[in-house]
């Protein structure tokens, strides 16, 4: 799996980006507050004015400009005014620029705070030439901190905040990951101990996306394992129950054959051979149904033409129809292609035809139709036998169900159950109803291949 496509990666990325933004914003705020309220180095405005005057007298406007750049690096914007005019202009806020002429005309030292965290100083100074000048300075702090010191303080604060935020995010993610992992570990241990009803539950689904999905997949796997084990036990119980009667009959027949004369024993042995054949067929059907209900892991799917498959099944049923003088009328239209297992679909069609022929009276008829319409392929088989009581129709596809008409024909109650399961694993359905005029109509419906 590509880590870039996982929601866990993007969650971590987003949270770390947000943490870095918080560190930058909070770090800057904390640093400014720290510099303003904890440092004890106050700005000496008188000394600053004398320094500016000295720079101007020694170097003129260029010397003052160089001095201004040096002060700006330390967080102070300042210049000298003479006769109300800036010797080297600096940028001032509009409200300060409007009121500055009044403050300069007052010829007093001023220190005020026109905006939050902004200090304005007007300081009088007299040059060596006797000219009166005034320092006008703006500072974001009431204390002078060198630029390098401010950078060091900012880096230290951001480093401390980064560690704090990374620790908090790491703890939060570790907590979110540990809970579902521990829940899955407990569930796995219980499953290994034989408690197949164990589930991870809601606790495992409260984790990040991938872990929540893993917990759901684990629960789905546990449900599947429990169902398969329960199914295997049920199949074993059903098989043992269904085999008990024919095995008892076989034992009785062999016992009678052993005590009989040779001529009579031959008849008993022939009957025993028929019982063995019935046992073989029933066991084969049980195993087929068990494999179908097990979910057919790895079933190969390929395009299958139901129409062609139905023609083959009709041809195979020709021997039985001739022997019992039955008429098999096939109405097979254009090809009906579905995606699935040809072997399983052939078995389903054989079971449909076999069930219809089994309950048809001698000399009767069976109709088979295959058609493709509205995105579905349908196989319809109808006999003219006794039909099924309406109350028994919903149970017709249950394994080992034999209705009130069962004594009229041999069987184990597995044929239609196999048809229904084959339909389900192919995304279709099987249904049955009593046809008008008598007889049973069974319909197999499957989705057509796209």
Automatic annotation (TrEMBL):
Pfam families: HAMP (PF00672), HATPase_c (PF02518), HisKA (PF00512)
Location in the cell: Cell membrane
Listed transmembrane segments: 12-30, 153-174
UniProt-listed InterPro entries: 2C_sensor_his_kinase (IPR050980), HAMP_dom (IPR003660), HATPase_C_sf (IPR036890), HATPase_dom (IPR003594), His_kinase_dom (IPR005467), HisK_dim/P_dom (IPR003661), HisK_dim/P_sf (IPR036097), Sig_transdc_His_kin-like_C (IPR004358)
UniProt superkingdom: Bacteria
Location (main, coarse): membrane
Cellular component terms per the entry's GO annotation: plasma membrane
Keywords: ATP-binding, Cell membrane, Kinase, Membrane, Nucleotide-binding, Phosphoprotein, Transferase, Transmembrane, Transmembrane helix
Membrane topology: Multi-pass membrane protein
Annotated CDD domains: HAMP, HATPase, HisKA
Domain Histidine kinase: 238-450
Domain (HAMP): residue spans on this chain: 175-230
EC number: 2.7.13.3
Keyword Transcription regulation: no
Name assigned to this protein: histidine kinase
Catalysed reactions, semicolon-separated: ATP + protein L-histidine = ADP + protein N-phospho-L-histidine
